[in-house]
Amino acid sequence: MPEIPELQHIARVLANRLSGRPIINVDVQKPIVIRLPREDFVAGLLGAEFQSITRTGKFLLFHTNRDSILAVNPMLNGRFQWTSGPDGVEKPHARTCFTLQFQDSEGVLGIRYIDERYLGKIYLVDQHNLDQVPVLNEQGPDALDGALDQDQFLKRLRRYRGQVKNALVNAKFIAGIGNAYSDEILFNAGIHPFTRISTLSEERRVKLYEAIQETLNWAAEIAASEIGQRIDSKPRDFLNVHRKAGEPCPKCGNPISEVAPNRRITSFCRACQPN
Ligand SMILES: [Zn+2]
User: Fold this and answer.
1) Predicted model pTM
2) Residue 118: which region, alpha, beta or left (left: phi > 0; alpha: psi -120 to 50)?
3) What would the pLDDT profile of 5-24 be if each residue is shown by its tens digit?
4) Ligand 1: distance of its center to the CA of 160 in Å?
5) What domains appear along the chain, each with residue ranges and CATH number?
6) DSSP run (H or E) holding 258
7) Which DSSP letter does residue 266 get?
8) Which helix (H) or strand (E) holds 24?
9) How far apart are the CA of 155 and the centre of ligand 1, in A?
10) Which of these, 159, 165, 194, 191, lies nearest to 178 by C-alpha position?
11) Distance from residue 204's CA to the centre of ligand 1 (Å)
């Protein structure tokens, strides 16, 4: 699942290459992910231009010059891919859902949206109706939103019960963190993923807030350099614990543990993150 570090960079790359370029072709191959009638989707985008492309939580928002927004919730597997050029893959992927072509100064530039499981959800709404987009309208502040300072974070955390990892991946609590980066954040904070929030001291709550900021910013920089223009890639090899079961912990050398409650893989170090 793409999370803040990757999505932030992908939004920037898409904005750099697509902004201000008219859409000259809209081809819908698998309408299942598109949450409006196919004809409305095509008519709404054909001839339009994206003025900016931003990210909030795990959503990518394409703001058009028609006061509408293409909102993309990639869920587990959705991703974009260039269809041509040095970074592109010309052969269409079997699970391509739709393709957009843009008029570029050097010819035609294309992106396709691919989704192996068709779980992603695509909306095209008037910009004033963004609050009608499901999931987006319920999400809490973005984890890297400047407005989410330490005080705000601690205030929100006091309202949550249950295990700390469950809160981190809950977009209603804070948006943009998924399974991979929640493991990394908890490793950096030295907190066991199944710790109940009610048992966390004030000091450890502050540590958790700092670990969120530090981990996401650290990873965003690496993800940006590893992804480059390959917007369909999701580099994760550099992570410390997530999916590194059996490998030595980078802090203490003990093997990384992995469990999968509710089929969600959770990786952590039993020595550095005692329960
Ligand atoms: Zn360790």
Assistant:
1) 0.95
2) left
3) 999 999 999 999 999 999 99
4) 27
5) 4-138 (3.20.190.10), 150-268 (1.10.8.50)
6) strand 257-259
7) E
8) strand 23-28
9) 30
10) 165
11) 17
